[in-house]
Amino acid sequence: MEKEKTTIVLFSGDLDKAIAAFIIANGAAAYDHDVTIFFTFWGLNTMRKDEVVNVKKNWLEKAFGWMMPRGPKKLGLSKMNMLGMGPAMIKHVMKRHNALSLPQLIELAQEQGVKLVACTMTMDLLGLQKEELVDGMEFAGVAAYLGDATRAKVNLFI
Amino acid sequence: MEKEKTTIVLFSGDLDKAIAAFIIANGAAAYDHDVTIFFTFWGLNTMRKDEVVNVKKNWLEKAFGWMMPRGPKKLGLSKMNMLGMGPAMIKHVMKRHNALSLPQLIELAQEQGVKLVACTMTMDLLGLQKEELVDGMEFAGVAAYLGDATRAKVNLFI
Amino acid sequence: MEKEKTTIVLFSGDLDKAIAAFIIANGAAAYDHDVTIFFTFWGLNTMRKDEVVNVKKNWLEKAFGWMMPRGPKKLGLSKMNMLGMGPAMIKHVMKRHNALSLPQLIELAQEQGVKLVACTMTMDLLGLQKEELVDGMEFAGVAAYLGDATRAKVNLFI
């Protein structure tokens, strides 16, 4: 019997939306779905390494790189961000409730074989290079996403 | 013949997105779909009672409870909120066009048997308790959502 | 064999989300899917003509019309809008990478036969009239959207 399939486009670079995306992805993987998360636009920031990676960029790519959050620990909230107090509060309560943090959720997704795909077109636009994203990602365009989505029942845009 | 199924994750706590979610849900229910709305994160605020409910909370849960909007009448807009003038304008034009208000859309959804499910994990995080949400809701986690979504054709994340 | 179907609700009026919606829609159309984009709330602004159209409006409809962006060239970003510098930066890098601009993506969608449907209920609320939207759109309500979505595998809310 063919496995159920779930795909998520993670467009948003907000901490709360990224958490929601990875909780759904990990839940679906636990139910033995084939799961793909397709990271595009600001969602790519979720998968940036948190250290500066030495790659060649023009000034505009450098500007984007400097302005955008560097990895899951730097993301803000979609609501009640309050200059970073909101994310700190959310992280505090998640820890108190023994909920997995976003970096842990990402690690779990990797362990469970969730396919993590970076959108090459928006990487180009934002000047992000493969070396700047966490290891083990795949790189593809909208055609690959649509190939997966057409075979999936649960398709979300977050 | 099995009924068509529709699920909506309501993540957003914006008035305009909540209205869109309930219009789609009520439309699908009118077409005899089994419809589930799964309220998570800020979307839970849509279903808060508008009076203060006397429950025991720690200081951080009290802070969240105080900062977040208490029910559908208190939500802001995702765009053009303009310190509350935007929501007043939208409510005004909806009334003039005899469109159902969000509280009426919620009531209609309940009458049509739309399954309204509060995400227990985010309730814990935000310190929201069952007594604070409107009556008649169900309480479940991401597994229950995925169970419904996998059987549905229309799955939206709002 | 019946064609695959894809539907997108474009609720957002942000440039970056509109670009994502049209890239997915054009990709699906290139794979010979029947594609529908259903424009509702702020998403309608994507399809406004950029000139002022002489139609009769009350003062509130005039106020909405004046405050909302007039067409794809006037949209802001969901993140890093920076008083319009963000959209200028994105448009600049899209041009440098020979990516299609949003007006070109819209044109391509029309050429590929993507069904572009304006939500009549939110047109009424926001006081937008048929003459103010680009030519060749269809006009319908949530029932028509659900009719398409129920037959589609990929259904996204953007």
TrEMBL record, chains A, B, C:
It comes from the Bacteria. PANTHER family: CONSERVED WITHIN P. AEROPHILUM (PTHR34655), PEROXIREDOXIN FAMILY PROTEIN (PTHR34655:SF2). It comes from Brevibacillus panacihumi. This is Sulfide reductase.
